Amino acid sequence: MPASTGERLYVATSLADAVAALADRGSAGAPLAGATWIMRAPIRREELRSSYVGIGGIAELCAVELTDGEIRIGACVTHAGLIAALAGVEGCDGLVAAAGGAANPAVRQMATVGGNLCASDFPASDLSPALLCLDASVELRTPGGRERMPVGRLLDVRRTLEPGTLVTGVVIARKSLRTGHARLPLRKAGDYPVAIVSMAVALGSEGSIEDIKVAVGSVEASARRWPQLEEQLLGRPLDPARAHELAKAGAGVFAGRESVEAPGWYRVQVLSTLVRRAAQAALAA
């Protein structure tokens, strides 16, 4: 049985225990693992929840499992853990680069995959675009059972998930892909990026693009795919220079968000350069 809902921190001993504790606390509670986003809530002038459910000690949430058909990443796997588990795995170069470029080494040791995806007020997530272009799905547990949805769907509904809903992992189908990830920080490593572009490409036997996914992060409030650019790139060899020119001509489909770090127009302007860099990284993978 979950401890009293009056506790400020309850440490769950199992996945079922965590789901029940979160359901008992309703909108007043939230899961806690790495806490890198939660601990900075006062800086953002946000109210802390009255109760948290610690999930970082639940073994199944901290594992990365690779089978012939898929990769499953537990929600409490850290950025550093993701890098260690997936470095050198086919199709994961972009995702590993995303995890390795995020924040700084100290944060990467603590920040989790699930926390990164569920932080609805964090548009500068590196993992979101990297997972979008891998067609990843998210596993959830609720008091009523299990559910799976595409990452893009989670990004759309994460603010309105029912109390007691817990993201438990991310699943990626294993495919023969070349992937790349490019980001533009303002001044130095550790800064939030102005813009992010992730790319995943399936090339045919003659080098033409059979399938391509391009995702953009940090430009708008949430990461999303760039289907117009994908359609233009299909059926021809991946040429970073051509991708740059097409992105430059078509970047107007994005409405850059304004912030103290960078104006919206600048976020959109740099996208074409990042598309070229992501394409170059994918070809080098």
Automatic annotation (TrEMBL):
<dbReference type="InterPro" id="IPR051312">
    <property type="entry name" value="Diverse_Substr_Oxidored"/>
</dbReference>
<keyword id="KW-0274">FAD</keyword>
<dbReference type="InterPro" id="IPR036318">
    <property type="entry name" value="FAD-bd_PCMH-like_sf"/>
</dbReference>
<dbReference type="GO" id="GO:0071949">
    <property type="term" value="F:FAD binding"/>
</dbReference>
<feature type="domain" description="FAD-binding PCMH-type">
    <location>
        <begin position="1"/>
        <end position="177"/>
    </location>
</feature>
<dbReference type="InterPro" id="IPR036683">
    <property type="entry name" value="CO_DH_flav_C_dom_sf"/>
</dbReference>
<dbReference type="Pfam" id="PF03450">
    <property type="entry name" value="CO_deh_flav_C"/>
</dbReference>
<keyword id="KW-0285">Flavoprotein</keyword>
<dbReference type="InterPro" id="IPR002346">
    <property type="entry name" value="Mopterin_DH_FAD-bd"/>
</dbReference>
<keyword id="KW-0560">Oxidoreductase</keyword>
<dbReference type="InterPro" id="IPR016166">
    <property type="entry name" value="FAD-bd_PCMH"/>
</dbReference>
<dbReference type="InterPro" id="IPR016169">
    <property type="entry name" value="FAD-bd_PCMH_sub2"/>
</dbReference>
<dbReference type="GO" id="GO:0016491">
    <property type="term" value="F:oxidoreductase activity"/>
</dbReference>
<protein>
    <submittedName>
        <fullName>FAD-binding molybdopterin dehydrogenase</fullName>
    </submittedName>
</protein>
<dbReference type="InterPro" id="IPR005107">
    <property type="entry name" value="CO_DH_flav_C"/>
</dbReference>
<dbReference type="Pfam" id="PF00941">
    <property type="entry name" value="FAD_binding_5"/>
</dbReference>
